[in-house]
Amino acid sequence: MQKKCTVCEETADANHFGAMTCRACAAFFRRKVATRNRIIRRCDRKCVMNSTMRKLCASCRFERCLKVGMRESEVLSKIYEQKKRKVETDNAISLKRIETFYTHLENVKKCEFLRKENSFPKMANYKVFNEAFKKYADLITENIILAFPEVQSLSDDQKNTLFKNFTTVFVIIEGCYKSKSEKIWILPNGDYVDDDNAVDFYKDPESKDDAQKLYELNKAEWKSTSVNLRSRIASANMDRKEFLLLTALVFWDGGLPEQSNDVTVYCQEMRQKVMKELSKYENMKHDSINASMRVAEIVLLLQGTQSVIETLQKSSSLTYVYNFFEHYNLFQPYWDRIHIAFRGPLEDANLNQIEFFYLFALIFWDDGLVDQSEKMAEICQKMRQKVIKELIDYENEDNSDAETSIRIAKIFMILPAIQSTLRIIDESAKLNAIYDVYDHHKSVHQSLGL
Asked: How far apart are the C-alpha atoms of 190 and 175, rounded to whole Å?
């Protein structure tokens, strides 16, 4: 015979903190005791507890928990034991590998970009940047297996797709992370690029090109990088482990245009493992609400990287068209890729109606749009923070700390998945534009009324 939860009368699974309850009520009680947040009463104390009412009235639910014999002292003693105990898991090994990789990369980088005695970092132009980027990209590619040995099971072309995407994004986010500034971007060789002197980046004594005009042509890149990455990364103020876990999320990108369907699924699975590790790390550092907020803040940086890459691609249209003919099958169907890149994370999250509306609100209050004014970006940023806080409060009602963090990460992973999908659609539109160059296809389109 199944036992009933003494709080909400749902099916109970065990004795929690001194009373027979379900997991949801146990998680609720633990969180309310652990966070010590004041519970605001909005009722006349006559709420009848059931599976529906337990989410609507926290005050009566907590009162009921105490009435049936749940003890706050048991919660506090377990929290102390958990914080004291050092947990080693298989996933933790992956963070150690990434740390080993990054330490090694920093050492070989110092050797590659050895500075002359008494030389100091200086403002770099595009030639210095290109040379430093190429050297550093080679170093990353040569050593990346140290961090992600799982990639060796993939075919060479699929490995190269991941490597090519990762090196570009990694150089960008590492430069932002190292600078800790919204205005400065540190290059691999130790030099820097300064927003306030961005025109100087395009100056070349050996060229007659107008630096101001070149800057105006590439202004969108500067704004996108500043709004979507430098300011966000500076604001996040990540520690070394958080930065490395972010790079792991960047590496296992499951929405790249040249990716096969099975590799897309594999990358999504690897990202889930990284997110669990990030959640575990944050829950060791913070209380449940702050841990979930921190996970959300870091996962949101992925959306920023997608925006920057999208802007860089759009501003490099000639290279972009060239890459189509070099890497693409002209007639490759893209619907399967959209299905896996977007619907995979969406189906994995399995949102309920309330979570869907929170996701919709996060999409609406996007603070990283290129044409957005600073005032509007600030408003959107504040609104997003409110939405995130409400979503975390909602998830906290029925989940444990770790479950809430993972749930938040899953929902937020849909945002970069949406941008990956838009990138695929955008590329397909460009492909159609190239395809339409041929007259016979124009006539076919006209006959179909397209």
From this structure: 10
Please tell me the CATH code under which domain 14-84 is placed.
Answer: 3.30.50.10
Q: Is 12 helix (H, G, I), strand (E, B) or coil?
A: coil
Instruction: With a cut of 70, list the residues of the chain below it in pLDDT.
Output: 1, 36, 77-93, 115-118, 208-209, 220-221, 223-228, 307-348, 370, 401-402, 417-450
User: Which residue, among 126, 225, 128, 131, has the nearest Cα to 183 in the 3D structure?
Assistant: 225
- Contacts for 199 with CB less than 8 Å, ≥ 6 apart: 211, 212, 215
Q: What is the pLDDT of residue 227?
A: 63
CA separation for the pair 109, 395 (Å, rounded): 43
Instruction: Give the contacts of 326 (CB within 8 A, at least 6 positions apart).
Output: none
pLDDT in tens, 47-89: 888 877 777 788 889 889 999 999 888 887 666 555 444 444 4
CATH architecture, range 94-440 = Orthogonal Bundle (1.10)
DSSP letter for 36, please.
-
Pairing of strands 184-186, 192-194: antiparallel
CB crowding 130-153: b at 16 or more within 10 Å, else e = eebbeebbebbeebbeebbeebee
Q: Where are the domains of the chain?
A: 14-84, 94-440
Strands (E) located in 114-216: 184-186, 192-194
